[in-house]
Amino acid sequence: MSATGSGKYEHGLRGMQELADAVWTPGSRWHPGELAWARSQHLGREPDWPTRLWRQGSTVLAWGWVDLPGTLYLQVRPGSAELVGEVLAWAESVAAEALSVLVLDRERHLVEGLRANGYVESISDGPFFRRMVGGLAETPDVLLPKGFTIREATDLAARTELHRAAWHPSRVTLAGYTTVTRAWLYRRELDLVAHAPDGTPAAYCLGWLDSRGRVGVFEPVGTAPEFRGRGLGRAVCLAVMARMRGLGADTVTVLPRGDAAYPVPARLYAGLGLTPIGRTVVFTRAR
Ligand SMILES: CC(C)(COP(=O)(O)OP(=O)(O)OC[C@H]1O[C@@H](n2cnc3c(N)ncnc32)[C@H](O)[C@@H]1OP(=O)(O)O)[C@@H](O)C(=O)NCCC(=O)NCCS
Questions:
Q1: Are the C-beta atoms of 29 and 20 separated by less than 8 Å?
Q2: Ligand 1 pocket member 113 (CB < 6 A)
Q3: Residue 285 counted as domain residue
Q4: Cβ–ligand 1 contact at 253 (below 6 Å)
Q5: Which end is more exposed in the chain, N or C (fewer Cβ atoms within 10 Å of the end residue's Cβ)?
Q6: Going residue by residue through the chain (287 aa), what tens digit of pLDDT does each one get?
Q7: Cβ of residue 223 lying under 6 Å from some atom of ligand 1
Q8: Is the CB of 194 inside a 6 Å radius of any atom of ligand 1?
Q9: Which of 127, 145, 178 is at the close of a domain?
């Protein structure tokens, strides 16, 4: 087995995605499309994101990603659960403060590995995320306000500006968005934008499929503030779902905020038929 640091996170991303793709279940924190977005959207973060991959030959067994000062994301093959301790030891050595380790509560082998290494669930009233999952067998028709149209994102500068408006204040730049479009599994046909009758970009949904083309994920979704509450988020997500289904997918998932302080995204996805099946939890070392 070998362990490699990845100074260049675009390079490490592909291996991280391959592991996410290989071990995906609805109880996973990371779909390979979520990793593509999370690692590509911001450029220049390498110094803040120490990352290490553990491989057996060309197969990635585990990875750890520290978001300095002290948040750890990790993924470990269930058959190699003993590596959880190695990932934690490495992360503790590079973190600038005590680690907060974020996993989904259904990732049993990670939860057990964390407990075995002296970590306990940290209870807080703060933000958390819910894994929501739905089927694609039947999706409602796409209904748009009069004169609105949905098209693929071909103008990347306009697409970037729309994202920035929806997520203001956002650090995503045209260069960052362009990097997203070069990531493994990005498909322009699942990057859809709803336009107002005068052509103004109003809402978008970026969908990703796993390599088998079975499980889609929304990451991210946004509506410009002046166009909210008109059914555009719903319409553009439904349009992506219809395309996912057309490509052979049977499942769609998303990871919105689950806490009461930020309820609208979960409401949007519930209206699309997705239901919650798990949530993120944070582990810290027992004192
Ligand atoms: C979440 C977001 C995309 C919703 O877009 P939108 O175009 O306003 O959504 P829609 O008009 O299609 O409404 C979807 C649902 O949310 C509800 N909703 C929309 N705005 C709401 C508000 N301010 N308060 C309460 N409910 C609201 C709608 O009533 C609808 O619910 P229903 O299906 O039960 O009728 C938009 O608020 C946004 O861009 N937020 C910032 C980025 C973000 O958080 N993205 C989601 C990441 S997972």
A1: no
A2: no
A3: no
A4: no
A5: C
A6: 777 765 444 569 999 999 999 999 999 999 999 999 999 998 888 899 999 999 999 999 999 999 999 999 999 999 999 999 999 999 999 999 999 999 999 999 999 999 999 999 998 889 999 999 999 998 899 999 999 999 999 999 999 999 999 999 999 999 999 999 999 999 999 999 999 999 999 999 999 999 999 999 999 999 999 999 999 999 999 999 999 999 999 999 999 999 999 999 999 999 999 999 999 999 999 87
A7: yes
A8: no
A9: 127
Structure tokens at 17: 């995605």
d(CA 51, CA 19): 14
SS3 22: helix
- In angstroms and rounded to an integer, the radius of gyration of the C-alpha atoms of the chain is 19
Q: Looking at ligand 1, which residue's alpha carbon is closest to its atom 43?
A: 222
Q: Measuring CA to CA, how many Å separate 269 from each of 3, 69, 159, 207, 235?
A: 39, 32, 22, 14, 11
H or E segment at 175?
helix 174-181
d(CA 245, CA 234): 16
Inside any domain, residue 167? yes
Please state, as a whole number, how many other Cβ atoms lie within 10 Å of the Cβ of residue 178: 15
Residue 238: CATH number of its domain: 3.40.630.30
Q: Is the CB of 258 under 6 A from ligand 1?
A: no
Question: Concatenated DSSP letters for 195-240?
Answer: E-TTS-EEEEEEEEE-TTS-EEEEEEEEE-GGGTTSSHHHHHHHHH
Q: How many domains does the chain have?
A: 2
Q: Is the four-CA dihedral 159, 164, 165, 167 of positive or negative sign?
A: positive
Shortest-distance atom of ligand 1 to CA 222: 39
CA of 221 relative to ligand 1 center, distance in Å: 10
